[in-house]
Amino acid sequence: MCSRLAVVGAGPLVGVHHCRAVVALQNMDVELACICEKSAEDNTASQEFACKLYTDVRTMVMEEELDGLVLSTPTHLHLQNALDCFSAIQARRAAGLSVLSALLVEKPICESLSAAQKLVEAAQAAGVKILVGHQRRHSPMVRMTRDVVQSVDFGPLRGFTAEFAIMKPDEYFSNDPRLLWRKERNKGGPALINMIHDVDLIRYITGDDVANVYAVMSGAARNNEVEDTGAVTLTTQQGAIGTFFFSDAVPSPWSYEFTARENKKYPPVGDRDCYHFMGAQRSVAFPTLEHFTYGDAKGWDEPLITTRTEVERKDPIVLQMAHFVRLCRREEESVCDGRDAIQSLAIVMAAIRSAETGVPVKPSQLLAESSGTVDINESTAA
Protein backbone atom coordinates (compact mmCIF):
# COMPACT_ATOMS: atom_id res chain seq x y z
CA MET A 1 0.00 0.00 0.00
CA CYS A 2 1.34 3.42 -0.96
CA SER A 3 2.57 5.63 1.89
CA ARG A 4 1.35 9.22 1.51
CA LEU A 5 3.62 11.94 2.91
CA ALA A 6 3.29 15.72 3.26
CA VAL A 7 5.96 18.39 3.67
CA VAL A 8 5.36 21.57 5.67
CA GLY A 9 7.80 24.26 4.58
CA ALA A 10 9.35 23.24 1.25
CA GLY A 11 11.88 26.06 1.11
CA PRO A 12 14.97 25.95 -1.15
CA LEU A 13 17.54 25.40 1.60
CA VAL A 14 16.10 22.33 3.33
CA GLY A 15 12.44 21.53 2.70
CA VAL A 16 12.68 21.00 -1.05
CA HIS A 17 15.37 18.37 -0.46
CA HIS A 18 12.89 16.39 1.61
CA CYS A 19 10.45 16.59 -1.29
CA ARG A 20 13.10 15.31 -3.69
CA ALA A 21 14.02 12.54 -1.29
CA VAL A 22 10.40 11.32 -1.31
CA VAL A 23 10.37 11.34 -5.11
CA ALA A 24 13.65 9.40 -5.13
CA LEU A 25 12.02 6.55 -3.20
CA GLN A 26 9.50 5.41 -5.77
CA ASN A 27 10.75 1.85 -5.35
CA MET A 28 9.33 2.00 -1.81
CA ASP A 29 5.81 2.84 -3.05
CA VAL A 30 5.68 6.28 -1.46
CA GLU A 31 3.98 9.46 -2.66
CA LEU A 32 4.46 13.16 -1.97
CA ALA A 33 0.75 13.90 -1.48
CA CYS A 34 0.82 17.59 -0.64
CA ILE A 35 2.83 20.58 0.58
CA CYS A 36 1.93 23.27 3.10
CA GLU A 37 3.36 26.78 2.88
CA LYS A 38 2.70 30.01 4.73
CA SER A 39 1.18 31.66 1.67
CA ALA A 40 -0.44 30.50 -1.58
CA GLU A 41 2.19 32.60 -3.36
CA ASP A 42 4.88 30.18 -2.13
CA ASN A 43 3.93 27.66 -4.79
CA THR A 44 7.32 26.89 -6.36
CA ALA A 45 7.68 23.45 -4.78
CA SER A 46 4.04 22.41 -5.22
CA GLN A 47 4.31 23.22 -8.93
CA GLU A 48 7.63 21.39 -9.28
CA PHE A 49 6.25 18.24 -7.69
CA ALA A 50 2.71 18.59 -9.07
CA CYS A 51 0.99 18.18 -5.73
CA LYS A 52 -1.72 20.03 -3.84
CA LEU A 53 -0.75 23.18 -1.91
CA TYR A 54 -2.20 24.05 1.50
CA THR A 55 -1.61 27.13 3.62
CA ASP A 56 -2.76 25.71 6.96
CA VAL A 57 -1.27 22.65 8.67
CA ARG A 58 -4.40 21.65 10.56
CA THR A 59 -6.60 21.89 7.48
CA MET A 60 -4.19 19.77 5.46
CA VAL A 61 -3.96 17.02 8.08
CA MET A 62 -7.75 17.05 8.52
CA GLU A 63 -8.47 16.74 4.80
CA GLU A 64 -5.73 14.39 3.63
CA GLU A 65 -5.22 10.70 4.37
CA LEU A 66 -1.56 10.86 5.32
CA ASP A 67 0.88 8.34 6.75
CA GLY A 68 3.62 10.79 7.69
CA LEU A 69 4.42 14.49 7.78
CA VAL A 70 7.75 16.29 7.39
CA LEU A 71 8.03 19.52 9.37
CA SER A 72 10.67 21.75 7.77
CA THR A 73 9.65 25.22 8.89
CA PRO A 74 11.89 27.64 10.86
CA THR A 75 12.82 26.15 14.23
CA HIS A 76 10.75 28.55 16.33
CA LEU A 77 7.59 27.44 14.48
CA HIS A 78 8.05 23.70 15.07
CA LEU A 79 6.03 23.48 18.27
CA GLN A 80 2.96 25.33 16.99
CA ASN A 81 3.03 23.50 13.65
CA ALA A 82 3.28 20.17 15.47
CA LEU A 83 0.44 21.06 17.85
CA ASP A 84 -1.78 21.97 14.89
CA CYS A 85 -0.94 18.59 13.34
CA PHE A 86 -1.71 16.70 16.57
CA SER A 87 -5.00 18.57 17.00
CA ALA A 88 -6.11 17.44 13.55
CA ILE A 89 -5.01 13.87 14.30
CA GLN A 90 -7.14 13.78 17.43
CA ALA A 91 -10.10 15.18 15.51
CA ARG A 92 -9.73 12.60 12.73
CA ARG A 93 -9.38 9.80 15.26
CA ALA A 94 -12.54 10.94 17.05
CA ALA A 95 -14.34 10.87 13.70
CA GLY A 96 -13.17 7.31 13.07
CA LEU A 97 -10.78 8.32 10.27
CA SER A 98 -7.26 7.05 9.64
CA VAL A 99 -4.43 9.11 11.09
CA LEU A 100 -0.77 9.64 10.28
CA SER A 101 1.63 7.71 12.47
CA ALA A 102 4.94 9.61 12.33
CA LEU A 103 6.38 13.12 12.18
CA LEU A 104 9.83 14.03 10.86
CA VAL A 105 10.89 17.30 12.54
CA GLU A 106 13.87 19.18 11.14
CA LYS A 107 16.71 19.81 13.55
CA PRO A 108 16.91 21.35 16.02
CA ILE A 109 13.69 19.93 17.35
CA CYS A 110 12.73 23.32 18.84
CA GLU A 111 14.30 26.63 19.80
CA SER A 112 14.20 25.89 23.53
CA LEU A 113 14.24 22.86 25.81
CA SER A 114 10.83 23.66 27.27
CA ALA A 115 9.26 23.89 23.79
CA ALA A 116 10.95 20.63 22.77
CA GLN A 117 9.62 18.82 25.82
CA LYS A 118 6.10 20.11 25.10
CA LEU A 119 6.36 18.82 21.53
CA VAL A 120 7.52 15.37 22.66
CA GLU A 121 4.79 15.09 25.29
CA ALA A 122 2.11 16.19 22.82
CA ALA A 123 3.34 13.67 20.24
CA GLN A 124 3.15 10.90 22.79
CA ALA A 125 -0.39 11.92 23.74
CA ALA A 126 -1.37 11.90 20.06
CA GLY A 127 0.26 8.50 19.46
CA VAL A 128 2.70 9.89 16.91
CA LYS A 129 6.27 8.63 16.47
CA ILE A 130 8.94 11.35 16.20
CA LEU A 131 12.03 11.31 14.01
CA VAL A 132 14.23 14.39 14.35
CA GLY A 133 16.13 15.35 11.20
CA HIS A 134 19.69 14.69 12.30
CA GLN A 135 20.15 13.09 8.90
CA ARG A 136 23.90 12.67 9.21
CA ARG A 137 23.31 9.74 11.56
CA HIS A 138 22.24 7.84 8.43
CA SER A 139 25.51 8.48 6.56
CA PRO A 140 27.51 5.28 5.88
CA MET A 141 30.71 7.20 6.72
CA VAL A 142 29.29 8.29 10.08
CA ARG A 143 28.16 4.76 10.91
CA MET A 144 31.55 3.31 10.01
CA THR A 145 33.27 5.93 12.18
CA ARG A 146 30.90 5.06 15.01
CA ASP A 147 31.81 1.38 14.67
CA VAL A 148 35.52 2.26 14.83
CA VAL A 149 35.29 4.60 17.83
CA GLN A 150 33.12 2.21 19.83
CA SER A 151 35.21 -0.87 18.99
CA VAL A 152 37.31 -2.69 21.58
CA ASP A 153 40.62 -2.05 19.79
CA PHE A 154 40.02 1.73 19.73
CA GLY A 155 40.46 1.88 23.48
CA PRO A 156 38.76 4.34 25.81
CA LEU A 157 38.11 7.64 24.07
CA ARG A 158 40.58 10.27 25.28
CA GLY A 159 39.43 13.24 23.25
CA PHE A 160 38.16 14.73 19.99
CA THR A 161 38.29 17.88 17.92
CA ALA A 162 35.60 19.18 15.57
CA GLU A 163 35.24 22.13 13.23
CA PHE A 164 32.43 23.91 11.44
CA ALA A 165 34.19 26.72 9.56
CA ILE A 166 32.35 28.05 6.54
CA MET A 167 31.23 31.32 4.97
CA LYS A 168 27.53 31.91 4.52
CA PRO A 169 26.78 34.29 1.63
CA ASP A 170 25.34 37.74 2.27
CA GLU A 171 21.98 36.74 0.78
CA TYR A 172 21.57 34.16 3.56
CA PHE A 173 21.08 37.15 5.87
CA SER A 174 18.67 38.92 3.54
CA ASN A 175 16.22 41.47 4.91
CA ASP A 176 13.41 39.40 3.44
CA PRO A 177 10.86 39.36 6.31
CA ARG A 178 10.62 35.56 5.98
CA LEU A 179 14.35 35.21 6.74
CA LEU A 180 14.91 37.80 9.47
CA TRP A 181 14.71 35.08 12.12
CA ARG A 182 18.18 33.92 11.05
CA LYS A 183 19.61 37.08 12.66
CA GLU A 184 17.42 37.03 15.76
CA ARG A 185 18.44 35.87 19.21
CA ASN A 186 16.98 32.49 20.30
CA LYS A 187 16.01 31.72 16.69
CA GLY A 188 19.08 31.94 14.46
CA GLY A 189 22.86 31.74 14.71
CA PRO A 190 25.30 28.93 13.88
CA ALA A 191 25.22 27.49 17.41
CA LEU A 192 21.54 26.58 17.16
CA ILE A 193 21.32 26.04 13.40
CA ASN A 194 24.65 24.36 12.61
CA MET A 195 26.56 23.29 15.73
CA ILE A 196 23.57 21.17 16.72
CA HIS A 197 24.48 18.84 13.82
CA ASP A 198 28.05 18.37 15.00
CA VAL A 199 27.17 18.01 18.67
CA ASP A 200 24.61 15.35 17.81
CA LEU A 201 27.18 13.43 15.75
CA ILE A 202 29.71 13.57 18.58
CA ARG A 203 27.11 11.97 20.85
CA TYR A 204 26.15 9.42 18.20
CA ILE A 205 29.67 8.45 17.17
CA THR A 206 31.14 8.22 20.67
CA GLY A 207 28.09 6.71 22.38
CA ASP A 208 28.83 9.06 25.26
CA ASP A 209 26.91 12.05 26.59
CA VAL A 210 28.32 15.45 27.52
CA ALA A 211 28.63 16.26 31.21
CA ASN A 212 30.03 19.78 31.10
CA VAL A 213 30.30 22.62 28.58
CA TYR A 214 32.38 25.78 28.50
CA ALA A 215 32.08 28.21 25.58
CA VAL A 216 33.06 31.64 24.30
CA MET A 217 31.26 33.27 21.37
CA SER A 218 31.49 36.45 19.33
CA GLY A 219 29.26 38.31 16.89
CA ALA A 220 31.94 40.69 15.70
CA ALA A 221 31.84 39.63 12.04
CA ARG A 222 28.31 40.90 11.37
CA ASN A 223 27.17 42.62 14.57
CA ASN A 224 23.83 40.80 14.51
CA GLU A 225 21.96 39.73 17.63
CA VAL A 226 23.37 36.23 17.19
CA GLU A 227 26.90 34.86 17.33
CA ASP A 228 28.91 34.10 14.20
CA THR A 229 32.01 32.52 15.77
CA GLY A 230 32.72 30.47 18.87
CA ALA A 231 34.83 27.86 20.61
CA VAL A 232 33.44 25.16 22.90
CA THR A 233 35.11 22.71 25.29
CA LEU A 234 33.13 19.57 26.08
CA THR A 235 33.73 16.98 28.81
CA THR A 236 31.90 13.67 28.40
CA GLN A 237 30.37 11.46 31.07
CA GLN A 238 33.25 8.99 30.62
CA GLY A 239 35.92 11.66 31.00
CA ALA A 240 36.92 12.39 27.40
CA ILE A 241 37.62 16.03 26.52
CA GLY A 242 36.82 17.63 23.19
CA THR A 243 37.03 21.01 21.50
CA PHE A 244 34.76 22.45 18.85
CA PHE A 245 35.37 25.60 16.78
CA PHE A 246 32.60 27.10 14.70
CA SER A 247 32.19 30.11 12.45
CA ASP A 248 29.91 30.93 9.54
CA ALA A 249 32.02 33.95 8.56
CA VAL A 250 35.31 32.46 7.29
CA PRO A 251 36.53 31.05 3.96
CA SER A 252 37.41 27.48 4.89
CA PRO A 253 37.01 23.85 3.78
CA TRP A 254 36.89 22.48 7.36
CA SER A 255 33.27 21.52 7.90
CA TYR A 256 31.11 18.44 7.49
CA GLU A 257 29.39 20.11 4.55
CA PHE A 258 32.58 20.48 2.49
CA THR A 259 34.54 17.44 3.62
CA ALA A 260 31.81 14.77 3.51
CA ARG A 261 30.88 15.64 -0.10
CA GLU A 262 27.38 14.19 0.38
CA ASN A 263 25.56 17.40 -0.56
CA LYS A 264 26.28 18.51 -4.14
CA LYS A 265 25.48 22.11 -3.16
CA TYR A 266 29.01 22.46 -1.78
CA PRO A 267 31.96 22.49 -4.22
CA PRO A 268 34.52 19.70 -3.61
CA VAL A 269 37.71 20.61 -1.73
CA GLY A 270 39.58 17.30 -1.88
CA ASP A 271 40.27 14.85 0.95
CA ARG A 272 40.08 16.84 4.16
CA ASP A 273 38.77 16.14 7.66
CA CYS A 274 36.55 18.04 10.07
CA TYR A 275 36.57 15.67 13.07
CA HIS A 276 39.34 13.74 14.85
CA PHE A 277 38.66 11.07 17.49
CA MET A 278 41.56 9.94 19.69
CA GLY A 279 41.48 6.74 21.71
CA ALA A 280 43.95 4.94 23.93
CA GLN A 281 44.92 2.50 21.18
CA ARG A 282 43.93 4.19 17.92
CA SER A 283 42.87 7.51 16.43
CA VAL A 284 40.65 8.12 13.42
CA ALA A 285 39.84 11.14 11.25
CA PHE A 286 36.46 11.87 9.68
CA PRO A 287 35.41 11.67 6.90
CA THR A 288 38.58 10.21 5.35
CA LEU A 289 38.48 7.39 7.93
CA GLU A 290 42.26 7.51 8.13
CA HIS A 291 43.44 5.45 11.12
CA PHE A 292 46.60 5.93 13.20
CA THR A 293 48.00 3.34 15.60
CA TYR A 294 51.20 1.57 16.69
CA GLY A 295 52.41 -2.00 16.35
CA ASP A 296 53.87 -3.94 19.27
CA ALA A 297 56.21 -1.07 20.19
CA LYS A 298 54.43 2.15 21.14
CA GLY A 299 55.50 5.74 21.71
CA TRP A 300 56.69 8.79 19.86
CA ASP A 301 59.97 7.15 18.83
CA GLU A 302 58.05 4.50 16.87
CA PRO A 303 56.47 4.96 13.43
CA LEU A 304 52.73 5.32 13.33
CA ILE A 305 50.86 2.75 11.24
CA THR A 306 48.42 4.49 8.91
CA THR A 307 45.46 2.84 7.19
CA ARG A 308 42.31 4.08 5.52
CA THR A 309 38.82 2.58 5.30
CA GLU A 310 36.89 3.21 2.10
CA VAL A 311 33.15 3.78 2.44
CA GLU A 312 30.66 4.54 -0.31
CA ARG A 313 29.14 8.02 -0.10
CA LYS A 314 25.34 8.14 -0.11
CA ASP A 315 22.88 10.98 0.37
CA PRO A 316 21.84 10.88 4.05
CA ILE A 317 18.67 12.88 3.30
CA VAL A 318 17.43 10.06 1.06
CA LEU A 319 18.54 7.40 3.56
CA GLN A 320 16.74 9.28 6.32
CA MET A 321 13.56 9.50 4.26
CA ALA A 322 13.66 5.76 3.59
CA HIS A 323 13.96 5.19 7.33
CA PHE A 324 11.07 7.60 7.93
CA VAL A 325 8.85 5.64 5.53
CA ARG A 326 9.67 2.45 7.44
CA LEU A 327 8.92 4.29 10.70
CA CYS A 328 5.53 5.33 9.32
CA ARG A 329 4.89 1.66 8.51
CA ARG A 330 5.96 0.60 12.01
CA GLU A 331 8.78 -1.47 10.53
CA GLU A 332 11.56 0.31 12.44
CA GLU A 333 12.08 2.37 15.57
CA SER A 334 13.24 5.99 15.29
CA VAL A 335 16.99 6.45 14.86
CA CYS A 336 16.66 9.82 16.62
CA ASP A 337 13.47 10.28 18.60
CA GLY A 338 12.43 13.46 20.36
CA ARG A 339 13.98 12.68 23.72
CA ASP A 340 17.27 11.76 22.08
CA ALA A 341 17.28 15.04 20.14
CA ILE A 342 16.58 17.00 23.31
CA GLN A 343 19.87 15.72 24.74
CA SER A 344 21.74 17.26 21.81
CA LEU A 345 19.77 20.49 22.09
CA ALA A 346 20.67 20.70 25.79
CA ILE A 347 24.39 20.72 24.91
CA VAL A 348 23.93 23.64 22.51
CA MET A 349 21.86 25.51 25.09
CA ALA A 350 24.56 24.86 27.68
CA ALA A 351 27.16 26.33 25.29
CA ILE A 352 25.02 29.44 24.75
CA ARG A 353 24.45 29.82 28.51
CA SER A 354 28.17 29.36 29.19
CA ALA A 355 29.10 32.03 26.64
CA GLU A 356 26.64 34.41 28.30
CA THR A 357 27.74 33.74 31.89
CA GLY A 358 31.45 32.95 31.47
CA VAL A 359 31.25 29.74 33.50
CA PRO A 360 30.91 26.04 32.59
CA VAL A 361 27.35 24.71 32.35
CA LYS A 362 26.01 21.19 32.77
CA PRO A 363 23.40 20.19 30.15
CA SER A 364 21.71 18.03 32.80
CA GLN A 365 21.06 21.12 34.88
CA LEU A 366 19.34 22.88 31.98
CA LEU A 367 17.21 19.80 31.39
CA ALA A 368 16.22 19.80 35.05
CA GLU A 369 15.37 23.51 34.92
CA SER A 370 13.22 23.13 31.81
CA SER A 371 11.28 20.24 33.32
CA GLY A 372 10.67 22.15 36.54
CA THR A 373 12.84 19.92 38.72
CA VAL A 374 15.91 20.96 40.68
CA ASP A 375 18.88 18.75 41.49
CA ILE A 376 20.67 20.24 44.50
CA ASN A 377 23.81 18.34 43.53
CA GLU A 378 24.04 20.11 40.16
CA SER A 379 26.02 23.32 39.74
CA THR A 380 27.00 25.47 36.78
CA ALA A 381 30.48 25.70 38.23
CA ALA A 382 33.11 23.15 37.22
Automatic annotation (TrEMBL):
Pfam family, one: GFO_IDH_MocA
Positions of the Gfo/Idh/MocA-like oxidoreductase N-terminal domain: 4-134
Domain GFO/IDH/MocA-like oxidoreductase: 143-254
InterPro entries attached to this UniProt entry: Gfo/Idh/MocA-like_OxRdtase_N, Gfo/Idh/MocA_Oxidoreductases, GFO_IDH_MocA-like_dom, NAD(P)-bd_dom_sf
Gene Ontology terms, MF aspect: nucleotide binding
Family as reported in the entry's similarity comment: Belongs to the Gfo/Idh/MocA family.
Official protein name in the record: Gfo/Idh/MocA-like oxidoreductase N-terminal domain-containing protein
